[in-house]
Amino acid sequence: MEKERREEMKLEIESLSENEEFARVVIAVFLSRLDPTLEEIDDVKTAVSEAVTNAVIHGYQNGPGTIYIKAGIEGRLFTIEIQDTGAGIPDVGKAMEPMYTSDTTGERSGMGFSFMEAFMDEVEVTSALGKGTTVTMKKRIGE
Amino acid sequence: MQQETFTYEARGEILIIHLPKELDHHNCRNLRYETDLLLAENYVNKVIFDFSDTEFMDSSGIGVLMNRCKQMSMSGGKVAVCGAGSRVKRILTMGGVYHMVKNFDTKEAAIAD
Questions:
Q1: Which domains does chain A carry?
Q2: CA-CA-CA-CA torsion for A12, A115, B1, B29, nearest 10 degrees?
Q3: Annotated catalytic residue within A50, A81, A97, A140
Q4: Is A54 one of the annotated active-site residues of the chain?
Q5: What is the pLDDT of residue B3?
Q6: In sequence order, what E strands does A75-118 have?
Q7: Residues of B in contact with A24 (CB under 8 A)
Q8: How far apart are CA B51 and CA B106, in angstroms?
Q9: For domain B7-107, is the CATH number 3.30.750.24?
Q10: Closest to B59 (Cβ–Cβ): which among A21, A24, A111?
């Protein structure tokens, strides 16, 4: 019987919008070890982009900060955790409602969490005001 | 990483925006700023977003597109989308964009409408 693959990686990046692309590309390369389909890669890239964008815009309010990313592979299960130590979300349930946004410029669609939920199998959000937010997402690859 | 840029093409009163390979929050900021300037300084009655080169897009693109729709509808103008591949189409569908915006396979078809 083939031994179950188990790997982990960590990435720490500054909260800069340039790093949204950097993060999703690094994660896509890590994910490629599971031999995913193009669609699965795009799904994960979109979900990562949404979570990192949330950290940049909401968590750190476009200011300085560090975003901590942990990804892991266990057999066919891919897990990713994206954490900021910024503003936090007052009401996670409300923030996850489709079209809800705390942004007042009208430029944000409020679809971030909906996209994460649509593209990943599981999405869990924990947040504390003034302490930050952690988004944990899971997806089975190739099943 | 290369700087992704937008190309703007004017055809009479139509503004065509050629979107880059990846459209996310980072480069949406430029898109918003440049498009607002162009709309403020020129008479435009139709904006066409050309996704022919776009391979990646997240919900940030939806926000910018929808806000341009609101702006254009206030001034009686139209917004259209063309050249979207299967990935972009999926994102636009999920974002509800096709309820407000017409989709065309080619730029020419979007111009002719």
A1: 6-140 (3.30.565.10)
A2: -110
A3: A50
A4: yes
A5: 53
A6: 77-84
A7: 56
A8: 10
A9: yes
A10: A111
Domain coordinates in residue numbering, chain B: 7-107
Mean pLDDT, rounded, of chain A: 95
pTM of the model: 0.94
> In this complex, is the C-beta atom of A9 within 8 Å of any C-beta atom belonging to chain B?
no
- B43-80, pLDDT tens digit by residue? 999 999 999 999 999 999 999 999 999 999 998 999 99
Query: Nearest-CA distance from B92 to chain A in Å?
Result: 11
Amino acid at A119: F
Which amino acid would we find at residue A54?
N
CB contacts of A115 in chain B (<8 Å) are 58-59, 91, 94
**In this structure, what token pair is assigned to residue B27?**
């480069």
Q: Which residues of A touch B66 (CB under 8 A)?
A: 109
Residue with token string 């937008």: B6
Q: How many cross-chain Cβ pairs, A to B, lie less than 8 Å apart?
A: 65
Both structure tokens of B6: 């937008």
Q: How buried is residue B20: exposed, middle or buried, by Cβ count under 10 Å (0-12/13-18/19+)?
A: buried
Site of tokens 């992704």: B4
